[in-house]
Fold these 2 entries.
Entry 1:
Amino acid sequence: MSFFGLDCTRNREREVERKIRANDREYNSSFRYATNSIKTSKYNPFTFLPLNLFEQFQRIANAYFLFLLTLQVIPAISSLPWFTTVFPLVLVLTVTAAKDAIDDINRHRSDRQVNNRKVNVLINGKLISEKWMNVQVGDIIKLENNQFVTADLLLLSSSEPLHLIYIETAELDGETNLKVKQALTVTGDMGDNLEALAAFNGEVCCEPPNNRLDRFTGTLTFDTQKYSLDNERVLLRGCTLRNTDWCFGLVLFAGPETKLMQNCGKSTFKRTSIDRLMNVLVLFIFGLLALMCIILAVGNGIWEHQTGSKFNAFLPRKENIAFSAFLTFWSYIIILNTVVPISLYVSMEVIRLGNSYYINWDRNMYDARTDTPAEARTTTLNEELGQIKYIFSDKTGTLTQNIMTFNKCSINGKSYGDVIDHYSGQRVEITEELARVDFSFNRLADPKFLFYDHSLVEAVKLELPDVHAFFRLLALCHTVMAEEKKEGELVYQAQSPDEGALVTAARNFGFVFRSRSPETVTIEEMGIQRSYELLAILDFDNVRKRMSVIVRNPEGKLSLYCKGADTIIYERLHPSCNKLMKVTTEHLNEFAGEGLRTLVLAYKDLDEEYFSEWKQRHHESSVAMDEREEKLDKLYEEIEKDMMLIGATAIEDKLQDGVAQTIEQLAKAEIKIWVLTGDKQETAENIGYSCSLLREEMNDVFIVTSNSPEEVRQELRDARLKMCPDTEQDQFLIPEIILGNTPKVVQDENVNGDYGLVINGHSLAFALESNMELELLRTACMCKTVICCRVTPLQKAQVVELVKKYKKAVTLAIGDGANDVSMIKAAHIGVGISGQEGMQAVLSSDFSFAQFRFLQRLLLVHGRWSYLRMCKFLRYFFYKNFTFTFVHFWYAFFCGFSAQTVYDEGFITLYNLVYTALPVLGMSLFDQDVNDRWSLEIPQLYVPGQLSQYFSKRAFMMCALHSCYSSLVLFFVPYAATYDTARDDGRDGADYQSFALITQTCLTVTVCVQLGLDLSYWTVVNHLYVWGSLGMFFLLTFTMYTDGLFRLRPSSFAFVGTARNCLNQPNVWLTVALTALLCVLPVVAYRFFSSQIYPTINDKVRYKVCKMKEPAPRPRHTRLIRRSTRRSGYAFSHAQGYGDLVTSRRFLRRPALVSTGFTPTGRSPGFKPTGRSAGYSPVGREQNPKQKVEPTSLQMFRAVKDSSY
Amino acid sequence: MASSYNAKEEDGHLSGSAGLGGTAIRTRKPDNTAFKQQRLPAWQPILTAGTVLPAFFVIGLIFIPIGIGLFVTSNNIKEIEIEYTGTDMSSPCFNCSQNFSWNSTTPCKCVLSFTLDQPFESNVFMYYGLSNFYQNHRRYVKSRDDSQLNGDLNSLKDPSKECEPYRVNEKPIAPCGAIANSMFNDTLDLFYIDPNGTKNQIPLVKKGIAWWTDKHVKFRNPAGSNLTAVFIDTAKPVNWRKPVYELDTDSENNGFINEDFIVWMRTAALPTFRKLYRIIQKKNNMTPTLPRGNYTLEVTYNYPVRSFEGRKRMILSTISWMGGKNPFLGIAYITVGSICFFLGVVLLFIHHKYGNRNNSSDIPN
């Protein structure tokens, strides 16, 4: 799109100021502003060929081959005919062009889709439905609820009071809360009066198009009055209108000039580490090429001087020696160009594409619940998946399902929630088949709520007072909002999912929270509606770790209900509860041991006089000018004491399926997992334990929560010293020289024992400063697990960048929400969890799937295979091309350095394209050292990838040496075998054409044998490719050497008859067998030797697999047993509660029953997660059609709250 | 061992959802084909002691006998090589080599005598050998026009540019190019000196020395009944004494299909090479083709090689099923076979000592 932007700004001088007159197309069109049609496509049918070719030749490889081609048409240099280069080049260009064309067609299609969206435009006093692309600057358009904003608009009027509108800006900035915009009163008063709007002729004068989302300056002149305009009045394209029936807007910027489009198009291009290594190697290869050519050119000079000059009678020469050497240099550049194979890049793309398809096709990464298969959104990063060293994971929605379920409780010393078998008295494992509690007695029950212990509901029905008190407390003491659109259809809006779960539990057990007003809470107790007077909310905060409400029941009795962390509540209980405390503590320990989040509930009956006196003091304190907080805290302390214990709740923060096993697997593969979450420290820690990131048996878990840089530094340093006392030496930085710039790399430090690190966002901010980042990195990298809590999206990206900067390691970030986008983009590989609320993360990710547990398959199976295949491919590819090319080098010493080729031209053209292309491609698409089961069974197989052991500079050098050896064999064995010898019919057998044929046969057979040796997984396709290629070689060789083709073009097919005359010789075949064996012999010997002396993990596993003769291990069913003595005592997430809002009378903006069709998506009982936006893309990328996020009252509250600031 | 595997991962979906989806609803679930799930049946060879070591021994056992066979065969081939360049003062051809000129009309002759210690049985092949002659130089190799040699009339009149500078000499040259121009033109005659002193010329067959495909496909005279008439508008190559249509009197061996010419035009791969010159055919089973005794070689010395320090040789050789004399393959096979055998022993030792220990050791968990 920047392309397009450039295009239109070029036509006219730069815009300094934009002038618009509403409803005046003629006036506005004089400025030639861009219309609202967008164009992300690059080509049209006519420009495709020239533009695409131009782009392709900007790639260095293609340009290089173009250069070679030009060299080849110079007769004095041309050592090879033009077609040896043209065929491969044309093939490469065609394949790439086809891919580009398909991409562009898709872009055209999506452009068309976006451009053809309909919107109501006010034309001549009437609303006419128009396509988006026909909307022009200065038009007035009408938007309706949940519509996407068509262009950058000046808000004129809206359906809401005070001319407010609500928008969601997730597409622009990733923030999911609603924002408020307000129209000017002067325009807002026009309302939906079409006549007034049609007559509106205000003139806007504003800034030219730019990409600043948060700023806008301009003025509106209307009725000779001037009004200033700012960001508050402007709606940007890409937003979605929410909770607003309609609004009118004046188009300010359209199409490519909108702020959204000005912001687009800077997607970063990711490359794999193999790509980067390849760049270095290609430079090295160029150097090698130049060196070889220089040697040969010098040799030519010497030869011409000593021998060539005397040979003049037979071979006259015009040039002088130096010029001849110069020409020879270029001739050899052409001949030896196969060391930089053009087909390499194409093949790499094909392999990556193929391996991406495997990911898309994998049934084991398909999630049936959401009907989402895994998707490789980027097809160029596959092998990087086999080298991951660090994983950065989001918590909510990634590790956990963001679903809280009320699992267990302890009421008055009795524990509920476990299902006990009547006969054995043993606990029964809770499964789907188990009979759930039937809540049909309660018409308001949430059908999605599951509970299995029937004794609790019986206790409720028996009207046990404690049980009733328990649920009454849960129904009263919270800040949840209820929305009841239709009678009986309750939807709760909770600020934390925990609270939602508790209130929903109460609802199902017959204590239904129905509605609230600032002064009352209405609940239905076992079918009887009762209204409690809400006298005070003693809100939750991080220090208090509890919340209380003081209510007066319909009978006039005053009570304080409190819920909070066990430690906190226990300190404030009445001494008479001691006995109950002991039992409850036991239960709490049991709950915590199962990884549940617990809360303790308590109540207290209040004295009317005491309360009114307290209320008075409370009022005074709350209006006090100084130390208001402290005074209030003291008051709260005072009233929340001597409480009576009721019981405890246990909530499960549901992990996604298989998270713990996955993490265990990844840890075995020596992948370090860092959790970066916006959650509170306690929550994060808790999850850390429940998914076995943090473990009881860890030597230590360091917690860094300081508030000053010095303390943070000290804590980090102490932690490091504890882990490794002699760590302070400064040799941890080792310079890594890559192409001139020398970034420092932090070495891995050895630590004995397992450690964990938890750091909060505040400390992280200090630690990420440039003077402390190394401190953080060193400490963090020594720990097995790192959890960063309360981090902002920006910090997430910073942490990833930090590791990327100082560690020579491949990073992967996985997340599901808009707040993970920055981190996903920053990491080498970004993985999005799809099928959840938002599409943000998925849209910016490289791979996406529905479940965290698929990550192990993505890495340990697909990643490992992709890496293995790519490395095998590269090693083999370099081997076959170097071997092919080096033979020319040796031959030069016997042909007067004249750039005579060893092989036939046809063979040179077809070698890479036909004879050897498919076998190696087959290997790179099908090879597996061990199958997927074993890959998962033994995660250690992943480690060589992290260390880049399969392809590195060293491996490359080994390849080069191996090819050097092979080429010597391939040249000198045929040389010696044909030297001065005769055929079996007495005719001389050492002519050039026979020699060429013998050598190329030897070469083809040798590389095939070598491939067969490398290939560890011979499928039918591989057999077909290998034998087919060999067959193809002989077939094409015989074809090219036939009489018919010779008669057609004698000069091109001059090898006529060579194959027939040569391949019937027994000693030719003996030579072929000898060369193939000699080339392969050292490889086999070396491989066998090293597998005996230094067996790698692969050798061992493959040996084991081979010995077991069993296709795969039986999958084991293990149940993760958690024995933890930790207790979370924590069930509030996120920030301060809504207490303020509830009592402030600000929240009831709308009547309780709303007319718009509200469809609860119902992911959890009554609780709806704060909506991460539906996947709308303004540039027409795929939408998520399944989800239409409706406004939640929670967002409304936030919006109101925000706007009031 | 690892404790992986979730039951659900078996097929990526929950067992309970099978009924839920039904068959009518199209899901995005990937197809369950062996190809897409990467479960294609495959042969998975690995290098184990059980496969590698026997392979080494078997290769050794196959190669060594072949090598011995080849070596013996090669040694049984009889070959004699006579150098007649005449660089040495004592050489009979010294004079001829000294005063050479392409344009001299009087042929210079020299006679070399040699003795065969053993009789040559069967057909004997007579080669001429050149050393240090770069027939494989790129500019040399290119310098020909295959169309012209294939009898194309257009190319006859307008030879390819590749032939420069031997393309046109007032009239287009036929055959053009450096290869043709430098054709070997010594004449070699062989005489057997009877024990009683008589000189018997040995009949040399000059047909059948070129490849059949060359003679019948690649090289053809331009259409026309009379060669002289066909070539009338062409010039002879600069160094040649006779035009191409006077190479032989036999019309089947004249012009472009003259076999001496064809043999020369099949350029050698290396700077030292030999080319078949004549065949001495076996007369009958009773007497050897070349009996033991004294021979003389009469050389009509035309071809200059002194300028580039070349050497000229005449070779007489018999052949076997594997061609001419070349001990290389035999020695190479014996060597490689022995190496294989030796490696097999070494690796067996290593395997015995280390292999079992390492392979049976458990995979760390």
Entry 2:
Amino acid sequence: MLRRAVLQTFRQGLAQSFFKRNAVSLSETTVTHQTVETSDEGGEKFVSTQKTGDESGNTVIVAPPEFRFMYPEFLPDPAMETRNRLKEKLERMDMLQRRSVIEIPEFYTGSVMAVTVSDANSPNKFARFVGICIQRGGSGLRAWFILRNVVEKQGVEILYEMYCPLIQKIEVLRLERRLDESLLYLRDALPEYSTFPLDMEPERRLNNLVVPINPLKVKLRPRPWLERWERQNLQGVEDLNLPQRFYDKAEKVAKPWEKYDLMLHYRKTIPAEEQEKIFAEVQSQLQQQELKRKMRRRRGSDNEQ
Amino acid sequence: MNQADLSKLVSALRIAVKPKPRLFSCPEGPAGRLKKLRATVTALVKYERIELNYPRAEEAQGYAERLISDAIRNGDCHKHTMEMADYWLNEKQLVHKLFKVLVPRYQNYNSSFTRLVLGPKTYPGYFAGTAILELKGNPFPALQPETHNYHYWLHNVLLEEAKKEFRSAREDRNAGTTESVTAES
């Protein structure tokens, strides 16, 4: 077994002690890629509320369908044994309360983000980390995301809990999506694909309505790998060029019937009617918060002028 | 703690869904389980009322409801729905039946599309007993008799009036006897 550099995955509390305060900007070349603007799954994104009339003629507020991609942590854990409607409602209230204090922007797996956390042990009391979001999960207040970066040739990943009160600021430096929902293969990819300068500036979005999907295909390092990537249907990876026996074994081990298992899909997701109810409840407050932030930003830029 | 899968939008099912699926013992394993359930769902759509063992009926009910709800939500031009219909219905004319007959029938339903009724449990037989799984709105006579008793049915109206008349006649008689008693005393 080859010895490999130990993958350092931190929770945000431990990370502070491992960083140099004056981060040297990396000399590795940044990855050049072409972002292709393709439409989002639900079509064009619009911010205004959809108002549908019901029989009595009163307007019923319905959240735009893209809300489920923008705020997936508002949907509860689909496991039936642990569902509790009251607990979910209280959790949503707490999430909205936190969002009124700090801006948690829209982001997806593949977006480059910068997170500032309050840290008692650092000289300026804050620790900032820049990285690409390789995975996000959790539901409710326990929603988390993992940022990955390569700092001085050492791969570093930090798991941040989105609603943790220690988080001071979450910025999205580059908002885009990738071909896969989970980019854990970046751990086995060449380091240039995970390297982002720590002083990266936020990039202006070309089109505010659509989140671009980056069709980048990543090159992996030679084997051994952390996972059997040939067994996962990865779109964002270049041809693995493995001997045929790997693909044969993958076929033997595969479960092609799961694609057709309707009840399995049902148990893994929240039905559409419930999703609509949840987002209708939450939508007006989220929109109000966004408006207030826009006003504050506009007032701020006016004051500067 | 997992996030809900967002790749598909599914309609809420109006049946009781258990948290874990039932695993049937099949020589082919999990692939064989879906193959057997496919045969059951095909038979249900074809005959609209089938009698089978209870565990298989309960599982097939879930899959049938999911298939019909997907067909209603997405229609026949949706690629994924058509793939599912093609997989779950072994006979291809039943795919036409699903989209052309069953979808219009269940379009405005607020209840489940299937009904699961417990069947006879003969001794020694299978422990879980039999069940009858049927699609609602089928052309056969109802399995269970109507248990409702509405007050506006004619015989109920007549009975109510007869009761009122009897009570008022009894009160008059009682009033008459008490008056005669008071008159005597």
